[in-house]
């Protein structure tokens, strides 16, 4: 990055006709940088249920063109569930909430390219700034070499943008977490910290199984994140382990149905009806003005589960290989996912696809219940 000039004029982007800026959140200046699609804009205005979706899973998790196929299926699942999908990512240096099919295809087709960035909180100003710094844009005196301006947003990055747009429910595959071997490397996903600071509900199949799950859930506790798992009340419900339905970690809360989940998200105390445990938590958190997010764990459907023994052997090898090759930082998660994919001959991708779809469907239901509670 070249040195920045001292006085950078404050220019906020103006968007082409048919796109909108958010007026549905009070989230600082970030919302001025969002380009919101017509469909999502209307859904926000009419309080239609919306489910946010990430794009790092397409740019750094699934190969092209499988990723386009997955994206279409996930959006369709949300529509069938009666909600509007809001896919979030960076295309041409613009943070988008709601992608058209050709836009999504364009982003997904850059999967694996060096110039497509995996965008977490820290990367956002870098990737979004790029387009405004190109020669010929209306920002005088501020040009620099453009190397990248497309990005797949991680869970952390997507939460941040969803919140700025005013979207509360976000469905995805697996949360980042504490990598095995901590504190060497001291690799803790920004997803955990984002959940601690941003009030968005993330529906996932727990944290990815190649991570240190015990420590991941410890950090979520430290960060003040509500964690609930879909299951039967009165039984011992474990948080899921991505490819498997269960880990050895007891879920701090049980969500019996999408309505329970919506209650855990909803910040209006009068709407908190169904589950007495949740009422206490949320009443209190509302009154205290807490702003942290919620992790709603949805175990992978039984028929797609990969037996724990099988997957653990593959995972150990993949993690070891990453360490031997010196893969670290933001490359670690995509590297390990790819290793697991190769060794399981694609079985991990099938499981991953199934769980993302299952979470999208659950996301639509939770968004509907939330809309009902907030009426
Ligand atoms: N799930 C996948 N593939 C992925 C990811 C999740 O099947 O690539 C991404 C998510 O976007 C998640 C990110 O937020 O990995 C976590 O990366 P890290 O551990 O570097 O924070
Ligand atoms: Mn990391």
UniProtKB/TrEMBL annotation:
It comes from the Eukaryota. This is Carbohydrate kinase PfkB domain-containing protein. The chain holds residues 4 to 378 of 792 of the full protein.
